Amino acid sequence: MCYSAQIVADYRKYVRMFGAHMSIREFAQLYWERAEGSSFKIPKAMDAAFLVPATDDERRIKEAIDRFNGEQATRLEQELFKQRARLADAERTLQSKTTKAASESKRIATNKIESALRGLDDLRRTEPKDRDSRIFPGTYAPVMVMEDGQRVIKPMRYQCRPAGKPKFCDTKYPGTYNARRDNLEGFWKGVFGYSHGLIVANAFYENVKRHRLEGRELAEGELEENVVLEFRPLPAQDMLVACLWSHWQSPGEPDLLSFAAITDEPPPEVAAAGHDRCIIPIKPENIDAWLNPDPCNLAAQYAILDDRHRPYYEHRLAA
Questions:
Q1: Stretch 195-215: mean pLDDT
Q2: Which Enzyme Commission number(s) are on file for it (predicted)?
Q3: Three-class SS of residue 305?
């Protein structure tokens, strides 16, 4: 399962690369709802695309980002003050008597102070880092779809809730950020052949067992150990990752745009690294055919997935 990916989060690159345009209404709604208190997760690199707004709509999005960041900074500063006071109390206690409670309080306060400082540093810095473009299940990302014959960029959550499914699918089926190719006509039958999308990614991350990575069986008494691997195509390049997406609606609930990356059997180098799934990068010449599926001709969509781009994936332990 592709549990995380490093994506192109700046919608302007989609515009330049594919002649797409941004669906400003969905972006503005997303940022307004986050500023109003919704717990949406948006990568910092996606925010960065609006740091120098060029239109009134982009200025309104920038205002929503600034408002959210300001409230986050206040929350972190309050937490910092609280934990520094807690640390001081614990240290005073430990000066006179060593207790388990005071030692634990000192440890927790120290960890929370470090976390708050990291959070403040992340809010304030302007220089980009790779992690700013990394998405996890539940994170929003720009997705290219076809709408009225035009390529359009919409912000969507990375975990698909298909239209018509109950809201509790998110927790009942937590792995729906990926759509297995061998289940496209099963769980995904109302989406595959109807609403296809693409994200642009240049790396993906997988959880694997260390003994599988090392090509061996578990030793007697050895417990399984999980490691995270980063896979990057060689040569370095942007990949057009095949996705399914859906517009979920329900009375009394906010609309949800969400997507899942399609995965398939891995190429040999990914399998050798201990993982059993892989994303599917499609070829540029198949973009429009993929984004304009015919539900009466699913064979044509499978053919696009088969005619995939096949780079060699180099792997390393993720930082």
A1: 93
A2: 3.4.-.-
A3: helix
3-state secondary structure of 177: coil
Q: Read off the pLDDT band of 288 (50, 70, 90).
A: very high
DSSP for 120-175, please give it: HHHHH--S--GGGGEE-TTBEEEEEEEETTEEEEEEEEES---TTS-TTHHHHSTT
For 307, residues 6+ apart whose C-beta sits below 8 A from its C-beta are 282, 283, 286
User: What is the rounded distance in angstroms from the CA atom of residue 47 to the CA atom of residue 51?
Assistant: 7
Please provide the size of the chain in residues: 319
Q: What is the pLDDT of residues 104-114, one digit of tens each?
A: 999 999 999 99
DSSP3 helix / strand / coil % (the chain, rounded to 5): 40, 25, 35
**Cα angle for residues 255, 247, 52 (degrees, 5° grid):** 75
Range of lowest pLDDT (69-83, 126-140, 180-194, 236-250): 126-140
Rounded to two decimals, the pTM is 0.90
Strands 196-209 and 134-135: unpaired
- Where are any strands of DSSP class E within the chain? 4-7, 21-22, 134-135, 140-147, 150-158, 178-180, 196-209, 226-234, 239-248, 256-264, 278-279, 281-282, 312-317
d(CA 76, CA 71): 9
CB-based contacts of 68, cutoff 8 Å, min separation 6 = 31, 34, 35
Residue 148 backbone phi and psi in degrees, to 5 = 55, 40
Residue 204 near residue 231, CB atoms below 8 Å:
yes
1 pLDDT higher than 60: no
3-state SS class at 24: helix
